[in-house]
UniProtKB/TrEMBL annotation:
Protein known as: FAD/NAD(P)-binding domain-containing protein
Organism (species): marine metagenome
SUPFAM superfamilies the UniProt entry points to: 2Fe-2S ferredoxin-like, FAD/NAD(P)-binding domain
UniProt keyword Lipoprotein, yes or no: no
Short name of one Pfam family: Fer2_4
Amino acid sequence: MGGYSTINDKNFKVIGKPIKLKFNGITLSGFEGQSIAALLYSKGIRGLRNSKSGDERGLFCGMGVCYECAVSVNGITGKRACLEPAKDGTEVRSLDYKTPYNPIPPIISEYKIDSEKTYDIAIIGSGPAGLMTARTLIGKGLKVVIIDERMSLGGQYFKQLAKSHSFENKSLNDYQYRRGSELIKQVQNSDIELKLGNTVIASEKISENHLNISLLKNEVIELINAKRLVVSTGAYEIARPFPGWTSPNIITTGAAQSLLRS
Ligand code: FES
């Protein structure tokens, strides 16, 4: 455990519903819209798992890349705390290196191979490139879907405030933030379909104009059809290892930014 981490700025307002989750059996309160990592961090909890050497490991990249924040959520191991939304009643447990990875196999629940739902374009990633591409293509009358493993649009570059909080003094938002917010609203108000919280686990070319794309969400696999696939998975920080980087008290600037916004 480290110190408590919260920001006392009168411009930040909590707007998320109060929730309670359990971490290793201890009840903690937070707000709907926070990630599990943000909620735990705000309570001073840094160590989320133990490595083979017994060292504590925890949040590092804050954007779903490094898996340092892997925890068990409602009995399913290997969940990334930085991506998982904190929900009321969730049971979170830290992991030991011996815990088997994801012991519950995904359930294949839905096939849409022959369904009418074929997208002209499937876009992986909802950062600036994905959003701009989607907005342009929907304007051409195409049927577009955006897939992102995060629960919110914007990627890293246009990352917005978590839904748990609002920032009252909008005039302090910089150009990048405002530009992102504007683009996100345009996409949300369009006919672009959004599949958030979905990880693309496979893509197979069936014929010239037909791809099968497998999505994983909440241990359920969904298969969708698309004619073309646009990969706009964006960028992330490359952290250079240095002695001590595995300490749960060391996080990247991207992770710090994510925490600041939730
Ligand atoms: S994947 Fe969550 S901190 Fe890197």
